[in-house]
Design a protein that fits this description.
QueA-like; Thrombin, subunit H; 2 domains; 9-stranded mixed beta sheet; 17 strands; alpha/beta
Length: about 350
């Protein structure tokens, strides 16, 4: 297995810059693993593929305003800090640029065009640097980071985000991610209501999306890629209901690769058919050859080349099926990545 096996060429015009409105009008490719067929639908027609007794599992993490602008306290130039995960009170793991101005000991004064008051300035100090440009930053007042920050968009989206809530799922409630759970962006409250009325149970887990969303696999052998941990929670109620559904032979359908990661990690750590509640770091790296224990179907977007997300989807659907699906998506003009179209893998 080589990382180059997960590469493909995408015309730049197929990278979605803005979301489709309404949310559920995006396209939906339905890939049947059983017979290899591909069907082209619209996302609101997802309900045609669901049946009474199915379980949909969503990731309810909410994107935080993680992009912070600032200036060097010693009179230096402007800098940008991207929060990745909270380590302890006032201390965050982050990325920063330009990196040469954010060495250990550097102090930053946070700035904002929209916040003007007479309160003391919020400052940050780089207390440690690590591999891959990682910084550990201690802030003077963590509570004000949300008002000073902005929602971070992936680097391949160049159009401004007019409505920040459009980069949140309609069910996002637990703040902590630095990128959206993009498979869930297609759902509307009305569609979720119709799905529930059909007898489908909707359950929620939390996995805060972190660094790996921004990190392509650079090693020739993907097994040498250092997967980063992301914090996750599965409540006792969700664990019990998933266990019961599996014992009863009902389909468990995950909305997004992040949901797959936490559900499968919890399953691996639990007794067969009896999931345990979970609140800890998730570090499961799913590659082809992985044996899925709980997930029966997957709703996902189209992912970047050489990404861990594409590797997970390939592990679930098979290399031949995914290669065919991506080739057909490109030929059919599907929209790719965060604001792009969706795929249902059955």
């Amino acid at each position: 297995m080589k990382t180059s096996n997960f590469d493909y060429s995408l015309p730049p015009e197929l990278i979605a810059q803005t979301p489709v409105e309404p949310r559920d009008q995006s396209r939906l490719m339905v890939l049947d693993r059983g017979d290899g067929t591909i069907t082209h639908r619209r996302f609101f027609e997802l309900i045609d593929y669901l049946r009474d007794g199915d379980v949909l599992v969503f990731n309810d993490s909410r994107v935080i305003p993680a992009r912070l602008d600032g200036r060097k306290a010693d009179g230096g130039g402007r800098v940008e800090i991207l929060l990745l995960r909270r380590l302890e009170t006032n201390v965050w793991e982050a990325l920063g640029r330009p990196a040469r101005q954010l060495r250990a000991g550097a102090k930053v004064i946070l700035t904002s065009d929209s916040v003007e008051d007479n309160r003391p300035e919020v400052t940050g100090e780089v207390i440690q640097t690590g591999r891959g440009g990682l910084k550990t930053v201690r802030f003077s007042e963590e509570r004000r980071l949300a008002e000073l920050g902005q929602i971070p968009l992936p680097p391949y989206i160049h159009a401004p985000l007019t409505h920040p809530e459009r980069y949140q799922t309609v069910y996002a409630r637990v703040a902590g991610s630095v990128a959206a759970t993009t498979a869930g962006l297609h759902f509307t409250p009305e569609l979720i209501k119709r799905i529930a009325q059909k007898g489908v149970r909707c359950l929620f887990v939390t996995l805060h999306i972190g660094l790996d969303t921004f990190s392509p696999v650079r090693e020739d052998d993907p097994q040498e890629h250092p997967i980063h941990s992301e914090y996750g929670v599965m409540s006792p109620t969700t664990a019990d209901r998933l266990s019961q559904a599996k014992r009863e032979g009902r389909r468990i359908i995950c909305v997004g690769t992040t949901t797959v990661r936490i559900v499968e990690q919890v399953t691996r750590m639990s007794r067969p058919l009896q999931l345990q509640p979970f609140e800890d770091w998730v570090n499961l790296f799913i590659l082809p050859g992985y044996q899925f224990r709980l997930v029966d179907a997957l709703i996902t977007n189209f992912h970047l080349p050489r990404s861990t997300l594409l590797m997970l989807v390939t592990a679930f659907a098979g290399k031949e099926h995914i290669s065919q699906a991506y080739q057909e998506a490109i030929a059919s003009g599907y929209r790719f990545y965060s604001f792009g179209d969706a795929m249902l893998v059955l």
